[in-house]
Each structure stands twice: as structure tokens, then as C-alpha cells.
Design goal:
- The chain is of the alpha/beta class.
- The strands form three sheets. The protein has an eight-stranded parallel β-barrel, surrounded by seven helices.
Length: 355
């Protein structure tokens, strides 16, 4: 039976830190060649390496369609600055930005900043949800037509179309408005790994795309059902939530068969469940899980990006395209369009229209 909904595919382009922007550009272009929805680039305060958001801002002008989703840690960072940086990525990529929301849990990372000690996961994810919330409010603090740019009169903006957000969270207060105009997508796409309990609640309330680690289709389907139920409880349309299974992929031996059942693969707690096998067998797994309604798609993290991403795109993805299970071109230009998500209305403009 064919899948009843579009298949969504994304890939990680991380691996050991590299300081050559051409490395990341080449990987993003390869993923774009396969018409993948987006690529992610991991980051944390616990490891050395370039800033993921800055790297993908460099990659943006060298790509044309692929979505760009850096990891952005909300712990120890200012929500106003995060909002501005993500909005800037959306502008320089012409509407292809997202952000992979993460938290910082260790005492060693907290000492890098010296502002406060490490906190429990539930507290950090509650704060992360507040950061996502205020980010969306800041993006809405400029109405779409707030910019005038009238040289004759010297007016740059219509001040009546700028809004104070006056957001007070548990640990911060943001007045606004933003310093960056409303992004092309309205709200850049929010991605959260919703596998764990505290993160899952934040994902259900705020995320557009949720990653889950699962070793069987039934487990993935149960996570998807739970996320949609929670999203509905927050007044969201659960059909707008995209749930992708996160797999760390090792295609080192392209000719070998996959291990018998993903359940036998060793779990990688930080990077998703582990798949080892060939590109054809990976295509079979994706086909079976998606047609069975287990998930909306897959986020694949190559264990060796330079080798495995090429086999994913030219092997697995090419086979899925040949079978008519995955698109061969981008029907739109923004990441929201790739994911089939509408551009959000501006909450302040909508409130003004009602008034």
C-alpha cells in the first residue's frame, strides 16, 4: 500500500570539527542534489569546533534550496540574541532556516559562562520552551510591511507596525521589539529531539519537527501518537507536527545486508539508533516504516559524512525516488514549503485586525 503522506528526509553533516567552509558547503550541496528537506549541523558547549549557526550562514549563499538547521543551545544564551541570529540565517538563506533547539546540562559547560550552576533537565527544557516562545514573539514584533524605506520622506519603518513583546519567563524578561525584520518564513522552523520526557513536552508545545529515536516501527508510531496527543492538548493542530525517526547510519560496507532488524543494532544515546548495512536495505527500511505509518520521515546522521552521505543520496534516496516514494525536485523555495507547513500569521497584526 503506498504511503498516504509525503516522505520527509533530512541528514546531519557534522562529524569531527572542520574549519574549512568548503567541507560543509560540499555536503549541503550533495544533500540538496538529493532534494532532502534539510541538513542539520550539531553544536554544543561541550566540544571544540566552529559555531554551527555561523557555519550554515556561510553555507547559505552557496546553496539554493536545502533547508539549513544548526543546533542552537538555549542554556546560558540570551533569547534576544538567539532570535536575531536565527532570523538573520533565514534572511541570508531566503527562507530556508530552522534551528535545532538543545540545552546544556553539565557543570563543566556552566563554568564556561560562570553565570549559574547546572540545572535539572526539566528546568532547562522549560526554559528552552520559553526561549522558543519569545523567539516567535520577537519575529512577530515586526509586521511584514513594517519597513517603508521611503527616501523622500526619510522614513525607514512604520512605528505603528512594531510591537513590544513584554515577555517574562522564569529566568528572563524581554521587552522587544526585534532588531531584525520579520523573517521570510515568518517563523523559522523549530526542530527538537523529543525522545526524552522533558524534551518531549517542549517539542509537543513548540516544535515543527520532532526527532525520535526508535528501534522498531511500533515504537516510533507510539512516540508519534503521543506527541500528536500532547500537541492537541496545547491547542495545536497535530497534523502540522512532523515526526522523523533519528538514525545514525553506517554504510561503510555497501554490499553487506543490514543487520536483521534494527533492534539488534547498538543504541547511540546522543545520536539516535544505529543502522549498519547497505543503501538498498536502508531504502527498504525507510519504505516499510513510512508505509506502515510509523513516522513522517527520517533524519539520517552519517557516521562518516564524506562517505556515507554520498551513499545515502546516490543510493538510498535515488532508489526511493525511482519508486516514486520521494520527490525528485523541490516544489517550493522555503523550508516550510518543503515540509508542507504554512507560514504563520503574525499574532500582533491579527490582534490589531480583530481590534
Amino acid at each position: 500500500m503506498p504511503a498516504t503522506a509525503p516522505l520527509h528526509l533530512a541528514a546531519g553533516i557534522g562529524g569531527p570539527p572542520r574549519y574549512d567552509p568548503g567541507h560543509y558547503t560540499a555536503l549541503a550541496r550533495l544533500a540538496e542534489h538529493g532534494a532532502l528537506d534539510f541538513v542539520t549541523l550539531g553544536d554544543s558547549f561541550a566540544r571544540p569546533g566552529p559555531d554551527a549557526l555561523a557555519v550554515l550562514s556561510r553555507v547559505a549563499p552557496a546553496t539554493g534550496r536545502i533547508g539549513l538547521v544548526p543546533t542552537v543551545t538555549t542554556t546560558h544564551t540570551e533569547p534576544f540574541h538567539v532570535s536575531s541570529a536565527v532570523a538573520t540565517l533565514d534572511w541570508v538563506s531566503r527562507g530556508r532556516a530552522g534551528w535545532y533547539v538543545d540545552v546544556s546540562t553539565t557543570g563543566a559547560e556552566a563554568r564556561l559562562f560562570g553565570r549559574r550552576p547546572a540545572a535539572p533537565a526539566d528546568e532547562l527544557w522549560r526554559e528552552a520552551g520559553e526561549s522558543v516562545d519569545v523567539g516567535a514573539r520577537l519575529w512577530d514584533s515586526w509586521e511584514d510591511d513594517a519597513e517603508i524605506r521611503d527616501v523622500a520622506t526619510g522614513r525607514f519603518i512604520d512605528r505603528d507596525k512594531l510591537h513590544y513583546v513584554d515577555f517574562e519567563g522564569t529566568g528572563f524578561f524581554v521587552r522587544g521589539p526585534a532588531i531584525v525584520p520579520r523573517p521570510p518564513q515568518g517563523h523559522p522552523v523549530v526542530v527538537v529531539d523529543g525522545t526524552s520526557g522533558p524534551a518531549r513536552e517542549t517539542a509537543a508545545r513548540h516544535a515543527d519537527v520532532v526527532l525520535v529515536r526508535a528501534t522498531a516501527p511500533e515504537q516510533a508510531a507510539a512516540a508519534r501518537t503521543d506527541l500528536r496527543r500532547r500537541a492537541a492538548a496545547y491547542g495545536r493542530d497535530p497534523g502540522t507536527l512532523r515526526v522523523l525517526v533519528a538514525l545514525t547510519v553506517d554504510l561503510g560496507d555497501a554490499e553487506s545486508a543490514a543487520e536483521p532488524g534494527l533492534e539488534s543494532g547498538p543504541p547511540l544515546a546522543a545520536d539516535g539508533s544505529y543502522y549498519r548495512g547497505g543503501p538498498v536495505d536502508l531504502a527498504e527500511l525507510i519504505t516499510r516504516w513510512h508505509r506502515g505509518g510509523a513516522a513522517d520521515g527520517f533524519h539520517l546522521t552519517p557516521i562518516t559524512p564524506g562517505r556515507d552521505l554520498e551513499r545515502i543520496v546516490n543510493g538510498t534516496v535515488a532508489l526511493l525516488q525511482h519508486r516514486g516514494l520521494f520527490r525528485t525536485f523541490y516544489p517550493g523555495g522555503t523550508l516550510r514549503e518543503h515540509l508542507g507547513l504554512a507560514r504563520p500569521a503574525n499574532r500582533y497584526a491579527t490582534e490589531g485586525a480583530r481590534a
